[in-house]
Amino acid sequence: MNKIDDNTAVEKSKKKLRWRITRGGGLFQGQLSMLQEKIDHLERLLAENNEIISNIRDSVINLSESVEEGPKSSQGDFSQGAGPHLLPSQSSLQAHPADCLFASRSGSQHPDVQMLDVYSLVPFDNPDGGVWKQGFDITYQEDEWDAEPLQVFVVPHSHNDPGWLKTFNDYFRDKTQYIFNNMVLKLKEDSSRKFMWSEISYFSKWWDIIDTQKKDAVKSLLENGQFEIVTGGWVMPDEATSHYFALIDQLIEGHQWLEKHVGVKPRSGWAIDPFGHSPTMAYLLKRAGFSHMLIQRIHYVVKRHFARQKTLEFYWRQNWDLGSVTDIFCHMMPFYSYDIPHTCGPDPKICCQFDFTRLPGGRFACPWGIAPEPITLANVQSRARMLLDQYRKKSKLYRTKVLLVPLGDDFRFCEYTEWDVQFKNYGQLFKFMNSQPQFKVKIQFGTLSDYFDALDKADTTESKNGQSLFPVVSGDFFTYADRDDHYWSGYFTSRPFYKWLDRVMESHLRAAEILYHFALKQAQKYKIKKFLSSPHYTSLTEARRNLGLFQHHDAITGTAKDWVVVDYGTRLFHSLMLLEKVIGNSAFLLILKDKHTYESYSSDTFLEMELKQKSQDSLPRKNIIKLSAEPRHLVVYNPLEHGRSTMVSIHVSSPTVQVLSASGETLEVQVSAVWDAERTVSQTAYEISFVVHIPPLGLKVYKILESGNSNSHLAEYTLYNGEAKDNGIFSMKNAVDAKEAITIENSFLTLWFDQSGLMKKMVTKEDGKHHDITLQFSWYGTTNKRDKSGAYLFLPDGSAKPYVYEKPPFVTVTRGRMYSEVSCFFDHVTHRVRLYHIQGIEGQSVEVSNIVDIRNSFNREIAMRISSEINSQNKFYTDLNGYQIQPRMTMSKLPLQANVYPMTTMAYIQDTKHRLTLLSAQSLGVSSLSSGQIEVIMDRRLMQDDNRGLGQGVRDNKITANLFRILLERRTDINLEEEKNPVSYPSLLSHLTSSFLNHPVFPMTEKFSPTSKLLGEFAPLASSLPCDIHLVNLRTIQAKMPVQKLFSKFTVESLTPSSISLMHSPADAQNISEINLSPMEISTFRIRLR
């Protein structure tokens, strides 16, 4: 995104928006080459900058027009919001000093309940609530239903994890297929029976093996309302560690499959097992066209508080929503679990007696010691009264006389006998209850949407003055605890290797999707039959589904059995290999000057990735490119929608190397050592690094050859606390004075390190200020109590203890033209801090890489702590799913583990002067336990189960790569009132840095020497998109974009708006030529190019 480099900032003004162009910081003294580089760079980008400034001006004009003229949406409304989409007035559009251009919190509509206030208000105590242990005693009067009977919907369901204790395939073979087969038979026996299902990964697998007759029977059950698909995603995803890209992708995959094969559109969301709930998921469901959703795993104290206030049903609104356009109705289940003992009412001992699968002699028993009884004429009255009492008590926690009672559990209804005992015994109870006028109850089997339809009717009937009965709630529901101090913050980090692999998979899938689309259009245009469009599409589909499967709440969370984790990893790895072929073949077609010569090449991948991963549990290694006087081609792909200057590093066989651009210009190159081991320099491989300038979504070709006629510069090394075995090529000095300060610098920053190679100070060159920012490692142990940390739970034995080492680690300091870095080698972490000598985005942050290996540790968790002078007090900020920022409060009334939250892409702390952001390339647990600190847990090795069903600890640790960026920014002209608001935004620089971190460029080398001439570049976009728009999932300000001018090599044939998963189109959908985008919104369009 370096078109505007470091030169764009947003100023805050109360009534106007203005943009300021600022210059970057100082230069190395005496390094005239740096000055020349910057001059060249600025000259190259001057024209592009003018274009960007013009776009910015147009955006501001359009923004002003949209505010003055009111909302003009051509995209339709797919929702039943609680109110119209209100654009804020012009005076409310304040841009915070370094923040993206979002509206500030001066909208007129505020939620009734803000979760930050709830967490501050409730005592988080745990008194004995009686039969409802975590709640309170519930009473009622017999005559409460005289005027209106209690309407009860008993909703049969089966929760099927796509992998947990068994693999996905094993569960399907042993259990899930029989649930579906029995469903078809048993629902047909009685039209009053109902059933519902969520996970399309299983449903599609079954669909593929059944005959047409059975498929028709399923469609008939869907049509008559006996069978309902709820949510309809590929899985029921985790909501803490999943990125919004993957959440959307698995939703699209499920909804598109349903549309193609069954023709149904899910209406209601159902999430009973994710370990905490994110408003991001609520937003995505809303934008998919849903109006209602259900959640379950919420902190037991929050449930008790909501139950007392009767706010268990509410409209969930996004923190950043100034109106009510994101409102979605949400039902929160009140009790401990989603199983039958905890869903009929507050007393699990009684509810368990109505789980007829637990009849004596069955597979299950009631742990409370009283077994169910078959319903007979002799006991139906007493049993009906007992059950009705529970229903009435549960209904007292809600605001209407409509009650939801789920009836199911994990992998239920897989035996036909369970269908019989549940439906026949409940059938007798229903028949008796409905025949007794004095019971004042109407009870039936139903689906989730049956319940919500009845509830909407009750709300409309009982609401006053058009006001809904239900409150509006904003905020999130992390961190989850199900009992005592058992906080589920461990899984935010568990199995971090696979959390890293997940994000690698996401970036590859997105890159492959975009390149494949462009290549397919070119193949169609030039009638190139050899382009493997069908196999490539199959590879894309498989990758989408494997990525979707991994978003399951026992997959990306790291909470499955060891062999199940291997199954997930193998699926991701297999798809990565296939995606690399799609990327390589698509890119090759796009850069061929004569497209028809593509036919003459082997169907094997012509271009291969410069990084190669050998197995599902290993880190990738760089290929060594063998050089000669004959040039080798390097193709670099930029998957971002912004033009980009970035550094590429590859391994080559010779230190005498020349790199040429497509125009023949010799590029400046840094040649660095490749370390075979901690203290051994490779004799056969060298790293070369150079800056590439790639157009948005574009490809560029570079030539690399062995030559003495080059512009290459050898990196210089200083070694501390030891010596290295070098190859005689590089200058390697041993530090003479052990107390000598270790520093590295670039145009923006100077970093100071201690003798262990750990950062201790940062100097910002723009203002010359020194900032005490230190980096340390630490250990957490696990408690000595009976319940200990495991895959789910974090139960530490107190505060973290410093990472202690007997002797100082070996430290290498690298100084070069393209980057400088400090590397230190501890027993459990190889730690590297790097500064890039690049003007623009990447030069302004500090890159931190940790290769973590705790395979020999015992019940320990390793953390990285960044400490600063920032007066953040007890407030910090974490992202939710890479989509939005959630303010957090570190609360002393809570145990340490409760103050750990999920971080998908970033966390930051701030005061009135500065903001310190940690940006992450993988999901991990993060906290700020003291003012000025950010702490991230990088890996955990735990020897025991934590009694949540997994039956094992976490012992399968891998050597894991964690990649971060640290960004220090000034805050000026701050409105202190902003600190009180429940909303915050990343700065534009932070947003772009995160994009660069999560969407790196793809360097590719040729497998075979091409006989055809290659294009110098492929540039599909006419220009970069505005810097706050992200393609595929559009995140934007109010702006208009002429679509016809978007693509330079293609013509837009049609563009129509759609819901986020393409399930719905607005009734007035028509081909449009202009896209209107609102702050924070994700918009989806069907586009056809030619």
From TrEMBL:
- Necessary cofactors: Zn(2+)
Supply the InterPro entries for this chain.
Gal_mutarotase_sf_dom, Glyco_hydro/deAcase_b/a-brl, Glyco_hydro_38_C, Glyco_hydro_38_cen, Glyco_hydro_38_cen_sf, Glyco_hydro_38_N, Glyco_hydro_38_N_sf, Glyco_hydro_57/38_cen_sf
What is the free-text note on the cofactor? Binds 1 zinc ion per subunit.
User: Which GO CC annotations does the UniProt entry carry?
Assistant: Golgi membrane
| EC number per UniProt | 3.2.1.-
Mind telling me which residue stretches traverse the membrane in this protein? none
**Positions of the Glycoside hydrolase family 38 central domain:** 486-572
GO BP of this protein: mannose metabolic process; N-glycan processing
Gene3D superfamilies hit by this protein: Glycoside hydrolase 38, N terminal domain, Glycoside hydrolase family 38, central domain, Golgi alpha-mannosidase II, Golgi alpha-mannosidase II, domain 4
Coarse class of the primary localization is Golgi
Q: Does the keyword Glycoprotein apply?
A: yes
Its UniProt pathway annotation is: Protein modification; protein glycosylation
Name the reaction it catalyses. N(4)-{beta-D-GlcNAc-(1->2)-alpha-D-Man-(1->3)-[alpha-D-Man-(1->3)-[alpha-D-Man-(1->6)]-alpha-D-Man-(1->6)]-beta-D-Man-(1->4)-beta-D-GlcNAc-(1->4)-beta-D-GlcNAc}-L-asparaginyl-[protein] + 2 H2O = 2 alpha-D-mannopyranose + an N(4)-{beta-D-GlcNAc-(1->2)-alpha-D-Man-(1->3)-[alpha-D-Man-(1->6)]-beta-D-Man-(1->4)-beta-D-GlcNAc-(1->4)-beta-D-GlcNAc}-L-asparaginyl-[protein]
Instruction: State the compartments where it is located.
Output: Golgi apparatus membrane
Alphabetical UniProt keywords: Disulfide bond, Glycoprotein, Glycosidase, Golgi apparatus, Hydrolase, Membrane, Metal-binding, Signal-anchor, Transmembrane, Transmembrane helix, Zinc
One Pfam family in the UniProt entry: Glyco_hydro_38C
- GO molecular-function term, one example from the UniProt record: mannosyl-oligosaccharide 1,3-1,6-alpha-mannosidase activity
Give membrane topology per the record: Single-pass type II membrane protein
- Transmembrane listed as a keyword: yes
- Name the protein family: Belongs to the glycosyl hydrolase 38 family.
User: Main role?
Assistant: Catalyzes the first committed step in the biosynthesis of complex N-glycans. It controls conversion of high mannose to complex N-glycans; the final hydrolytic step in the N-glycan maturation pathway.
> What is the protein name for this chain?
Alpha-mannosidase
- Gene name, per UniProt, is MAN2A1
